[in-house]
Amino acid sequence: MNAIWVGVGNYVDLVSDDAFRTSVLNNCIWLVFYLATVPIGLLVALLLNQFTPEMKVVKPLFLMPFVLAQALVGLIFVWVLEPKFGPMATVWGVFSREAPSVLADPTTATFGVISAGLWTQIAYCTLIYQAGITTLSKTQIEAARLDNAKGITMLRHIIIPQLRTATFVAVILSVIGALRSFDLVAVMTNGGPFGSTRILSFYMFETALSEYGVRKGYGASIAAVLFLSILVVTTPMLRRIFIDDRAAR
Amino acid sequence: MYPRPIQHWSRVSRVLYRTLIPLALCLWLIPIASLFLVSIRPLGDVFQGNALGWPSEFTLGANFRFIMVETSILSYFWNTVRITIPTIVITVTLSCAAAYVLSAYRSRLGTILFLVFVAGNFVPFQILLIPVATIAAKTGLYNTATGLVLFHSAFQTGFCIFFLRNFIRDLPDELIEAARIEGASEYQIFWYIVLPLIRPAIAAMSVLVFTLVWNDYFWATALTNGDTVLPIAPGIQTLNNAFVSRYNLTSAASLVAAIPPIVLFFLLQKQFESGLSYGASRHD
Question: Predicted ipTM?
């Protein structure tokens, strides 16, 4: 097959492609939810920042979802959300109701898939903050305490500023996580029902490599859009690494 | 310490904290617990709506025997091992060597090379899908373990160089200078001084690479076809499709895939935490 020069043809097609629009919209929904995991991660990390004997077990168990394969987490949540026999059905059964089929309903399916993603993403953000918390300055906290700072005031003026790096990393990783997620969609819904859970990375795969299509050029144009969106987010991070690197010399 | 240590809390809040946290943890672990709970019971229980309660019969052994004997899960498992282990070996070897050179000899070219490695990390690998699939098809690496090992190594090495170089850079210069004055060759310095000192970093990095490669679904889906080299993450998905709604079997298979990373995580928690917090700049 010979390649034909189509100029910006692929990109023109993208603009009027409903599936592409759905993917972008879904990626935005993913983004909002994933960004919410940053404050949640901070909260959990602070909550778990105690030295009791049981913490030695609680902390790793809490962080464990992070090491599970996304594909596996997807399967687990397919089971958890299963409306007839799954745990969801059991819980709704207690109230003698029928559980909704979250993943089969186009209006809720994306949220079902995202819920699986949040499970690992919250663990991830917690882990990042946990590492950050170990670097908090004890003297600063003690000094602030002498000045009667506590609770929210302490958190806002003393703790959060010191955790700037962790926050930065957590935000960037959450944004990227939301943009790149592929496994969960592929495993849980395969883009359906009726294409309602497509996101950019999945749609790219679908158009370029799946059984439905071999439009590699079109897939590549989706990849380019994905790349540009991620570039916007990672550029400040890259800059920072370079600056740190120069400063360290 | 923030929040205030619970030893200084009031009695009531202390008791509340120590009961509510384990409770919250139980809720948090419902997904994985329900996976385990369904893997120990016969299918009949599942269809009678008894997915979480006391099973009518414990069939963990039978479920596992079934997936071991009747499915290709062992071959998926073996495929994952023969993809993951060589990837770790190649990645660690290449990145140790490169990281040492990049931090010991500081030159303009070195900086540029380093920046290329770092920048490469910020390319989400997924966007490389089409070129990688094309290369794999043209070089005959499609659907081979070698292909997956090579592509995984290529993707991981850049990050590992970044990770290790910063580590080596933070070693005291005097150490390497002193060894040079003593007449140690570059190779000896690398082998006897640098490597032993960066061993913790290598361990942290290896567990990270292990988890990422072991759990890979995307590349395995893109670069394989059929069962011959299929690793376990897409493998359990294949089994899931074949089992239709035999959830007890799917769950047992999922557990087989989950056990190695979980065991490693509990054994090497420290390495995981330092690797992840240090390597938090990565994302693929």
Answer: 0.84
